[in-house]
Design goal:
The complex is a heterotrimer of chains A (337), B (403) and C (227).
Chain A (H helix, E strand, L loop, with lengths): L4 H30 L7 H39 L8 H6 L4 H27 L6 H28 L9 H4 L7 H7 L2 H21 L12 H26 L19 H23 L9 H35 L4
Helix pairs in contact in A: 1-2, 1-5, 2-4, 4-5, 4-10, 8-9, 8-11, 9-10, 9-11, 10-11
Chain B lengths: L7 H18 L1 H36 L5 E7 L2 E3 L1 E2 L2 H7 L5 E12 L4 E8 L10 E2 L13 E5 H9 L5 E4 L8 E9 L4 H4 L2 E5 H8 L5 E2 L1 E5 L6 H11 L3 E5 H39 L3 H12 L4 H32 L6 H6 L16 H10 L1 H16 L4 H5 L3
Parallel strand pairs in B: 5-10, 7-9
Antiparallel strand pairs in B: 1-2, 1-12, 1-13, 3-11, 4-5, 4-12, 6-9, 7-10, 8-9
Chain C lengths: L3 E12 L7 E12 L3 E5 L6 H8 L7 E6 L2 E2 L5 H11 E4 L11 H6 L9 H14 L15 H13 L5 E5 L7 H16 L3 E6 L2 H4 L6 E6 L2 E2 L2
Parallel strand pairs in C: 3-8, 3-9, 6-7, 7-8
Antiparallel strand pairs in C: 1-2, 1-4, 4-5, 9-10
Classes of the chains: A mainly alpha (337), B alpha+beta (403), C alpha/beta (227).
Chain lengths: 337, 403, 227
């Protein structure tokens, strides 16, 4: 099993990322140990030069992490062809206890790298790099997670066995099952959909009218909470609502099949807009919290507004994509599934 | 004093522009790297193309495979199956037809070729399924020993002047068996028929030494794919001496073999890529005086470290990407126009019975991404650190560089 | 009373500090250079004038002391911000011109415009305008190695002023030039000063020091001001 080209692909990618992150962390540690902005010694200049290396590494790493996330899903799909019982990526992921956790970890790390880069960018706009110690400490804290990613990948891959039967998406997302998959599939859309729309409206209204910190932002992290909620609700809705109207089958609830050619690669814009929206939305919140570093009218305000715009447009497009298959189906058949 | 307002996108485009020009300026140095990388990528891509084609071929072949194949096992080896099992299996719900099959291999030592013999009633064949061969004698000496062969076989037999009559002989036999070749056929996939000889059933039994009322195996056809697994399990329970092989088993096994083989070659290649990249890292770290001077000048006139680093990274990205695309195109031509001599045999074995074997063209965008992961991304990773080392050249290097 | 342009306060530069080969290149120099002045930093080789002019031009950071340009302290600025400054206000002409020999005249001259995000068409327009002004338009596609000394000199000047700087710094500009070229060079400097630039030249060439347009000659010896 281990010699499958796609397996080699995901292992290679993970180790490249690990290598890069370790290189970055080592240098971050060196910088944090001796950084003193006031100094004009050769050491300080050397450290300043290292900051460019770390920025470049993390930018590149994030790009690779996102590519790898896509690669992982495609790999799971390709590997499913040699696993009995598997008909798409779900089957491959379900074949190991580490499959789905690994997927979520990859997604999580993708988001974290993005946020780190936002913080890095903000810090670099200020001449005295006010957040330098904190951001490199953050990087050092993130490193074990990347290590975990590589470890989980190896464990996942070694679990894959072409002689052991695994479940396909019809089983994993079967509402009768008492698993997380079953729970997601079983969620009552009459409840979850209004909540989703509610959270979306809350975000849209809040971010359009209240760019400044207003009274309800004094509630700690409420904006981030809203974005995380819409991420969770969005994923659940894709599984238990949107997918069945794309496949036009009430029992087919796979979150991966819609990435395939036969469904016009619809999954790609759906996931893209959801993730982009959430990532930029949370980034905007981060920027808001770091606003104290900047004078009014500074370039950062333009940046914040830009993030806000991207996040709202993305999440709105996501909402459109979530409901359109249902609308089209309804128009076509006059009924619901 | 207002801050400079620089358009981020325009600056990025300028960087890309300069990187591209810079590549073209240092044609010899970059050309060599490009070529080596191109060759490596061609080999990787060829592997994927071949595997993909074989898999595609397998999938189209397997459509006509029986849902379950029944063999009899004795002492761990396959033996002939008695026709007494037929009625029991036919009765099972879900089973549409059970087809007893008569076939086997014959090794022809003169040509070092292994032929596949298949026995059936030749009269059942439609006239247009095969091309008749004209013989001097109109009547066949013994119709039981007539046979029809694949075009590949026919070509081979011509070399030993046996294209009219083929003589089967084994050292254990008392008498040789002479079979008349009454026709040839050409099927859609050459993989299937290139070594095939279809004989009249009686003749096949004699050649393959299979007694009456026994068969090589049974082919079972089950219309509902969901029931295949259950029926296989049932048969196993009823007749433990019978081995059931499902269609999915065969597909998976072949695919595993293809994947295993391609993975194996790929691993070997990855090691060579790694070696190549270590070389690149080393090379990129040691800058020529000319290049160092150039960077010093750029830094002195206002290019910052980030920008120089970006330029170097884009240079690397372009070289590797172009090598990637070039390699893929080259591989495509190698595999589908020239038929991948040498490399193909790693997957399908070396057998003189497969002379002109054409691969079905296969292309999937997913593989583009995979090749990317093995080539462009490692390359850019390897040049990142050296590029940074170059980019941090101090501007005053330009001032002190007096030639 | 002219406005202060560059103010140096107790600026020191030490190379290889703490090591055996420690060199104090600039030792506790304080200067005040006004706008639209033409200044010559005079001193023999090794006097520290090149180091001093590099620090003024944001090419080098001092070991200690403060450098203030148009009211902004730049000595501790990270490279990124210093570069933004450099691109906006400075033009530098190096000894031996330091042009990239494989690039054409036009390409060399446009290099400072890349980090400013100037589009290719605009870059070409700006470079051709200046090339014409300095009588080099017909040589725009020639490689640097194909040009004469005098032509290279002009290319170096154009590259230094294409980003419309306010301050022009030149390091030993006449070191390898004959009298005629030296004179024409100084004439260019005069034109630029008249058009509003401040010009600072590091040189020990008497022709430069005695040029009519020079407002002040500051003598430097062994890294210190000679008063």
């Amino acid at each position: 099993m281990i010699f499958h080209p796609w397996v080699i692909g995901i292992i290679t990618g993970d180790f490249i990322i690990l290598f890069l992150v370790l290189l970055g962390t080592v240098n971050a540690g060196i910088i944090n140990k001796s950084w003193d902005f006031e100094q004009t010694t050769p050491l300080q200049y050397k450290l300043e030069k290292k900051t460019y290396l770390i920025s470049a590494i993390m930018n590149f790493t994030m790009g690779v992490q996102i590519t790898l996330l896509l690669l992982f899903v495609i790999a799971a799909d390709e590997i499913s062809a040699v696993l009995p019982g598997a008909m798409c990526a779900t089957g491959a992921l379900a074949a190991s206890n580490y499959g789905f956790p690994l997927l979520f970890l990859k997604l999580f790390l993708g988001f974290l790298s993005f946020f780190w880069l936002i913080i890095n960018y903000i810090d670099n706009q200020k001449e005295n790099y006010p957040l330098i110690r904190e951001k490199y400490q953050l990087l050092i804290i993130l490193t074990p997670l990347f290590l975990l990613q590589s470890v989980l990948t190896l464990l996942f891959v070694s679990d894959l066995n072409p002689t052991v039967i695994t479940s396909c998406c019809g089983v994993v997302f079967d509402e009768q099952q008492e698993t997380i998959g079953g729970f997601l599939a079983d969620m009552e859309t009459a409840i979850s959909l209004p909540i989703l729309v509610g959270v979306y409206l809350l975000i849209a209204v809040k971010n359009n009218l209240f760019l400044k910190r207003s009274w309800w932002e004094k509630v700690p992290f409420i904006d981030i909470l809203l974005w995380v909620s819409i991420l969770g609700l969005g994923l659940a809705t894709i599984i238990n609502f949107t997918s069945i109207y794309i496949y036009e089958m009430p029992t087919h609830r796979c979150p991966f099949c819609l990435l395939q050619k036969e469904y016009y690669y619809l999954g790609i814009p759906i996931y893209l807009f959801l993730f982009l929206g959430v990532a930029t939305g949370i980034s905007k919140s981060i920027t808001l919290r770091l606003e104290y570093l900047f004078k009014p009218g500074d370039q950062m305000h333009w940046f914040k507004r830009k993030l806000n715009k991207i996040s709202l447009i993305s999440i709105s497009l996501f909402m459109v994509f979530v409901f359109t298959p249902f609308v089209l189906y309804f128009i076509k058949t006059g009924s619901r599934l | 004093m207002e801050k400079l307002k620089v358009n981020w996108l325009d600056k990025k485009l300028n960087i890309i522009d300069f990187a591209f020009q810079s590549l073209l300026r240092h044609k010899t140095k970059n050309g060599l790297i490009f070529l080596i990388f191109l060759v490596i990528i061609s080999i990787i891509s060829s592997i994927f193309f071949i595997t993909g084609s074989l898999t595609k071929e397998l999938m189209s072949t397997s459509k006509s495979l029986p849902d379950i194949t029944i063999q009899k096992i004795q002492g761990g080896r396959q033996v002939v199956v008695e026709d007494s099992y037929l009625s029991e299996i036919e009765k099972m719900p879900g089973v549409e037809t059970v087809e007893p099959r008569l076939w086997g291999y014959f090794y022809f030592s003169e040509l070092k070729a292994n032929f596949t013999i298949y026995g059936l009633d030749l009269n059942d064949l439609e006239a247009d399924e095969y091309t008749k061969i004209n013989h001097q004698q109109l009547l066949s000496p013994n119709p039981d020993y007539d046979m029809i062969v694949g075009t590949g076989v026919y070509r081979l037999l011509k070399e030993v002047f046996m294209e009219q009559n083929f003589i089967f002989n084994q050292s254990t036999w008392e008498q040789e068996i002479s079979c008349r070749i009454i026709g040839t056929f050409k099927a859609e996939t050459q993989l299937q028929t290139n070594d095939l000889m279809i004989m009249q059933a009686e003749g096949a039994r004699k050649v393959l030494e299979i007694p009456e009322s026994a068969y090589t195996d049974f082919a079972i056809y089950i219309p509902n794919p969901e029931e295949v697994q259950n029926i296989a399990i049932k048969i196993n329970r009823l007749f433990p001496e019978l081995r059931t092989i499902t269609k999915k088993n065969i597909e998976t096994t072949y695919m595993s073999v293809f994947n295993w083989r391609s993975g194996f070659v790929l691993s070997g290649l990855l090691i060579s890529i790694l070696a190549f990249l270590v070389l690149i890292w080393d090379k990129a770290s040691g800058l020529g005086a000319e290049e160092k001077k150039e960077i010093g000048i750029l830094k002195a006139i206002g290019w910052d470290t980030d920008m120089v680093l970006s330029v170097k990274l884009y240079e690397g990205f372009f070289i590797s990407s172009f090598a990637c695309f070039g390699g893929i195109i080259f591989a495509y031509l190698f595999v589908y126009i020239f038929n991948a001599p040498g490399l193909k045999n790693v997957f399908i074995g070396w057998s003189s019975v497969y002379p002109d074997f054409d691969l079905i063209p296969f292309f999937d965008f997913n593989y583009l991404l995979l090749i990317f992961i093995f080539t462009v991304i490692p390359y850019c990773t390897a040049i990142l650190f050296p590029a940074w080392k170059v980019a941090i050249t101090d501007p005053d290097v330009a001032m002190r560089n007096i030639n | 009373m002219k406005e202060s342009l560059i103010v140096l306060k107790n600026v020191t530069k030490i190379y290889n500090e703490g090591q055996i080969n420690e060199v104090v290149s600039v030792n506790n120099i304080s200067l005040d250079i006004k706008k639209n002045e033409m200044i010559v930093l005079k001193g023999p080789s090794g006097s520290g004038k090149t180091t001093l002019i590099a620090m003024m031009g944001c090419l080098l950071k001092p070991t200690s002391g403060d450098i203030n340009i148009m009211g902004k302290s730049i000595s501790k600025l990270p490279e990124k911000f210093m570069n933004q400054f450099k691109l906006q206000y400075f033009g530098f002409i190096f000894q031996n011109f330091q042009l990239i020999s494989e690039l054409s005249v036009a390409d060399n001259v446009e290099l400072p415009l890349y980090p400013l995000g100037v589009k290719p068409a605009m870059r070409r327009e700006m470079s051709l305008k200046l090339l014409e002004r300095f009588n080099l338009k017909h040589r725009q596609d020639f490689k640097i190695k194909e040009l004469s000394g005098g032509e290279q000199q002009r290319v170096a000047i154009i590259r230094a002023i294409i980003n419309q700087p306010e301050i022009l710094l030149a390091d030993e500009p006449t070191a390898h030039l004959d009298t005629e070229l030296s004179q024409s060079y100084l004439e260019y400097m005069k034109v630029l000063k008249v058009s509003g630039l401040s010009v600072i030249i590091a040189s020990h060439d008497p022709r430069v020091c005695e040029f009519s347009e020079v407002d002040r000659v500051i003598e430097i010896k062994d890294g210190q001001l000679k008063l």
